[in-house]
Each structure stands twice: as structure tokens, then as C-alpha cells.
Design a protein that fits this description.
The structure holds 2 protein chains of 2 kinds.
Chain A: E1 8-13, E2 18-20, H1 23-33, E3 42-48, E4 52-54, H2 56-72, E5 78-83, H3 87-100, E6 104-107, E7 118-120, H4 125-136, E8 140-141, H5 143-150, H6 154-167, E9 171-173, E10 182-184, H7 186-192, H8 223-227, H9 231-245, H10 247-263, H11 266-273, H12 277-289
Parallel strand pairs in A: 1-3, 2-4, 3-5, 5-6
Antiparallel strand pairs in A: 6-7, 8-10, 9-10
Helix pairs in contact in A: 1-2, 2-3, 4-6, 5-6
Chain B: E1 7-9, E2 12-14, E3 19-22, H1 24-30, H2 39-42, H3 46-55, E4 75-79, E5 83-90, E6 95-103, H4 112-122, H5 129-160, E7 166-170, E8 174-183, E9 186-194, H6 200-210, E10 220-222, E11 236-243
Parallel strand pairs in B: 3-6
Antiparallel strand pairs in B: 1-2, 2-3, 4-5, 5-6, 7-8, 8-9, 9-11, 10-11
Helix pairs in contact in B: 5-6
Classes of the chains: A alpha/beta, B alpha+beta.
């Protein structure tokens, strides 16, 4: 069951088979095919580079403004998939994505399952791991779920997921405190809705979409409004959900902690308090390397 | 100006807003101490003394080591004519690190500043994962050592002033508000604190320290204290428990 209750628009596009040394020609194509307009539904843009021969400058002109617009929210809630099998082009795209911090997914074929598209860009090892967990969990998680899957604290999970959302790789959907915010991988979400890429028929941009069945409708909050929401409130929603889901486990912990408090077992208490220090230390150092 | 109250615990000098720490590399390689040396013992070194006296209330200096680099700016620390140090403030983790030490001998090969620049270039100046793990371990011990007494002291204050929020710091790190309301023979206790930077271990420990007889499920998560709403923008949560 998905938290998304609106259509996901799939917009494949392929520049004609040609040599593209001219930046202006490429810019014109980009502006025509992908005008920066936000919608209130999610979109997946797919640019198939196969058949085109792009100069490095032309490729930059095509991809960088689009990726930057995605990250800045100029396209609303959207994901960008680029298709290429050329090793040199892929290496160049990886470098571009990292340098300009572009949220891009690489695919080897327009017919390949979307879940096989690989995220590239300025991602930390922890974020790549987290993104893998989101996909293996079906493309939709809460902070509490990631904390369970990765064996980390809920605050650490919130940090990782917020990082991925901020960089544009996943989309955050605000929900009640009891449910906790959902973090959605659009590519997986599209497939979960029963529309693998190979089944998606490219249709004109004005009407290409596939809908979520009625029975999975739930309230959706636009991602744009969430990006501006208070971080404390976001953290609280994650905590409320975590505390609700783990009440039994915390009850067991509490019993042991209260025994240690009664026995004045300070070493035991310190050991319990320090359970997640290694993970925290890793995070602290990762911050310095960004 | 009065110097702020300082405390020393393991590898830290605890100031009002942050801890002063020395990186392991600096402690052993630059200052020549054993790796297990406490901060209090390291104070006999002139630069550690200067670190404490000059940085206890202000985490930055006026001159930098190398160019300003935003949050990663390294500041120069000086003591007398020749003792020089490099400090870095990690505001997110509330810690100020003494990252390097050397003697200032202008124009000589072993002058402190070329040495500091070399460490920056090699990426070995800033604290490591081990440094942070040691910081968090020390804080965990401090939390465990003082939590129970802090919680009981705060609760006693709240019981003496029913209906009035009492605010205190638990375990040297967790600012917490407590309100006790008495209705007939029932005592209602509210505990409010922020979950920003908190982990579940500490949450369980805090509630346990206020009532060692109460199971976790006896505590109820509520949206407000009797005196005010919780400050959700600060990530504050509030638990309530009712006792006969």
C-alpha cells in the first residue's frame, strides 16, 4: 500500500540520432522537452542518450540545468533517469553528478526495470546503504523502519533519510505522528503500482501517467510543503512512530535499566548508554568529509 | 569577568556550552602524553592550560590557521612567545578540539605553523572516528554516573512546588522540565525533554531515573504539560505518569 495517492507521470524522451556539438541546440531541446514546471503529482523524467553523440559541453548543457532544477524543486516532485551504455558517457555523467550534486539515476536501457536504475551523485556510503534498504523494503519506508533494518538509532535514521530527501533521491511524505513520515523512492513506487518500465508506454507529455488504484488512496501532503516544515516536528513524527512500534522492546530495556539503577550498577548503565556510540562517531566524522 | 565554572571528567573539560577535548593524535604525538591521560592531568602542559583559560567561554579565536573555511575554520591558540595550538569547534556535537600543538620558531623547519598546514594538507588535523567514540563514551559514563541523583533532585524540587515547572540538566547533558500536580491522593508527574540528539537508551534511562518502579508502558506520551504545550519546534516530547 503506497502513501502516494496521485498519478506518477513517466516522461521518456530521446534526442534524435545525431552528433551534438552545439550547446544551443541541446539547450533548446531541453527547454522544449523539460520546461521547469512543477505539478502536484510525481514525475519521472527519462532521457535516453543512446543514438546521440554528445560533446562534453553539450552533455553538460543537457543534464546539469535539469539536475539542478530537480534538486531545487523547479520540477516539483520528480526523478531523473538517464539511459546510456557508453562507458565514457557514464563516467562523465558520474563526475558531473558528483561535482554538481545532481540527483540522477543511471539505467542501461529504457526497457530495464526502474528499480535497476543506479543512483549517482554526491552520496555518502551511509546514504547509498540507506537507499539500498529503501529499495529492498519495497521503495517506501519510515525512519523507524530504517532504524530497524540498519540497526541504528532513530535519530541516525532520520538524518540519513533527510539527507537523501534533501539531495533529491527520495521524497518525503508527511504523515501523522503515529504513522511517521514516509520516504518514497519514486522509481520503486512506480513499479509497485504495477507499471514496470517495459510496460509503460511513452505517450504525449500532456497525458502520460499511470494511476494508483483507488484502494491505496491515503492523504498525501505535497513534498514542497514538507521541505519547508520544521525539522523538530519531522523528528517528533519519527520518534512517535518509533516509540509506538517498539513499546514492548523498550519495556524490556526499561526493566533492565531500572534494575541497574536500583543496584547502582554504573558500569552497566554506561555500557547501555554507549550502545550506539560507534555509529554516532562514524556519522560525526562523515560530516567532516562532506 | 568571572571565569566560568569548569569541571573535569575523563578526557573532557566541561564548560557551560561545550566540552574541551584533545585529539588522540595531538595528545600523544604533539604533547607527548600517554593515550589514557585525562584532561585534568594534561593541564600541566602550557598549551592545555591556555586552551582552557582562553577557550572555556569563547570557542573561536581572532586568528585562523590557514584560510577561513566556514564551519571547518581552524583557529590559532597562543601561549607566550612560543607555544602554539590549533583548535576547531564542532558546534553540532558541542565540543571544542585541541587538534595540534607545536613551538613557534619563525623561519625554522620545525615551526608550528608549517607543521599545522602539513597536517591540514594530509587530512590528519581534525578529530577521527576514535576521537568521537571516546568523547561519546565519556559522555555516556558521565550520564550514567549522575543521572539518577539529578533526576531525583529535580523531582524533589517539583514536588516542593506543585504545578510549577522545574527545569534542570540531567546527566550533564539533557535539559529537562518537570511538573508535579497533586489531585486528591494522586500525584501526576510530567517529564518534558527534547529528543534532538537523544537516543533511545537515554530516553529509557531518563524515565527509569524518575521512577525506578514504573515500567516503560506505565508512562503516557502527551502533547502538553499542565503549564504549557510541548515545544514541538524544538523536538520536545512529554511523558506523564500517575501514581497513587
Amino acid at each position: 500500500m503506497s502513501v502516494l495517492d496521485k498519478r506518477i507521470e513517466y516522461r521518456p524522451s530521446r534526442p534524435g540520432t545525431a552528433v551534438y556539438p552545439d550547446h544551443h541546440q541541446v539547450a533548446q531541446y531541453r527547454e522544449q522537452e523539460f520546461p521547469p514546471t512543477a505539478t502536484d503529482w510525481e514525475r519521472i523524467f527519462c532521457i535516453n542518450l543512446e543514438g546521440g553523440f554528445f560533446s562534453p559541453g553539450a552533455l553538460m548543457e543537457l543534464i546539469v540545468p535539469l539536475g539542478q532544477g530537480m534538486r531545487a524543486g523547479a520540477y516539483g516532485s520528480a526523478a531523473l533517469v538517464v539511459v546510456s551504455t557508453d562507458v565514457g558517457t557514464i563516467a562523465f555523467l558520474e563526475a558531473l553528478a558528483e561535482k554538481h550534486e545532481l540527483p540522477i539515476f543511471l539505467s542501461s536501457s529504457p526497457n530495464a526495470p526502474l528499480r535497476h536504475a543506479r543512483p549517482i551523485g554526491a552520496l555518502t556510503t551511509a546514504e547509498i546503504e540507506t537507499y539500498g534498504l529503501i529499495r529492498s523494503a519495497g521503495g517506501e519506508v519510515t525512519s523507524s523502519r530504517v532504524a530497524d533494518l540498519a540497526g541504528i538509532e532513530v535519530n541516525a535514521a532520520v538524518n540519513r533519510l533527510s539527507g537523501l530527501a534533501k539531495k533529491g533521491y527520495v521524497h518525503r511524505v508527511a504523515r501523522s505522528r503515529r504513522e511517521g513520515d514516509a520516504f518514497v523512492d519514486l522509481l520503486s513506487a512506480a513499479e509497485q503500482m504495477g507499471a514496470a518500465t517495459s510496460d509503460v508506454k511513452p505517450v504525449p507529455a500532456t497525458s502520460d501517467e499511470f494511476s494508483i488504484p483507488d484502494d491505496v488512496r491515503q492523504a498525501i501532503r505535497a513534498v514542497a510543503t514538507i521541505e519547508g516544515s520544521n525539522p523538530g516536528e519531522v523528528l517528533l513524527r519519527a520518534w512517535y512512530e518509533f516509540l509506538d512500534r517498539h513499546r514492548d522492546a523498550l519495556d524490556v530495556d526499561s526493566k533492565e535499566v531500572r534494575r541497574m539503577l536500583k543496584d547502582n550498577d554504573r558500569d552497566g548503565l554506561a555500557s547501555y548508554a554507549n550502545r550506539h556510540n560507534r555509529e554516532r562517531a562514524k556519522q560525526a566524522v562523515a560530516r567532516l568529509k562532506r | 569577568m568571572n571565569s566560568p565554572a569548569l569541571r573535569w571528567h575523563r578526557g573532557s573539560c566541561i564548560c557551560q556550552r561545550y566540552d574541551l577535548r584533545i585529539t588522540q593524535r595531538c595528545l600523544v604525538s604533539d604533547l607527548g602524553f600517554e593515550s589514557s591521560t585525562s584532561f585534568a592531568d594534561a593541564r600541566r602542559h602550557p598549551i592545555v592550560h591556555a586552551f582552557e583559560s582562553q577557550r572555556a567561554s569563547e570557542p573561536t579565536g581572532t586568528r585562523t590557521v590557514g584560510p577561513a573555511a566556514g564551519e571547518l575554520t581552524i583557529y590559532r591558540l597562543g601561549q607566550g612567545h612560543e607555544h602554539r595550538g590549533a583548535t576547531w569547534h564542532d558546534a553540532a556535537e558541542r565540543v571544542l578540539w585541541l587538534c595540534a600543538y607545536g613551538l613557534h620558531r619563525s623561519g625554522e623547519n620545525d615551526d608550528a605553523f608549517p607543521y599545522f598546514h602539513g597536517l591540514i594538507g594530509a587530512g590528519t588535523l581534525l578529530p577521527t572516528e576514535e576521537d568521537y567514540a571516546a568523547l561519546f563514551d565519556d559522555r555516556g559514563h558521565r550520564f550514567a554516573d549522575t543521572l539518577y541523583e539529578d533526576a531525583q533532585h529535580l523531582l524533589a524540587r517539583a514536588r516542593s512546588n506543585p504545578g510549577v515547572e522545574q527545569i534542570g540538566v540531567l546527566g550533564g547533558e539533557q535539559t529537562t522540565g518537570v511538573v508535579v500536580d497533586v489531585v486528591d491522593t494522586l500525584e501526576e508527574t510530567y517529564i518534558a525533554f527534547s529528543v534532538v540528539g537523544l537516543d533511545t537508551s537515554r530516553l529509557v534511562m531518563i524515565l527509569g531515573a524518575f521512577d525506578v518502579e514504573a515500567a516503560f508502558r506505565d508512562w503516557e506520551l502527551v502533547d502538553r504539560l499542565p503549564t504549557r504545550l510541548t515545544r514541538s519546534a524544538d523536538g520536545e516530547i512529554c511523558y506523564r505518569i500517575l501514581r497513587g
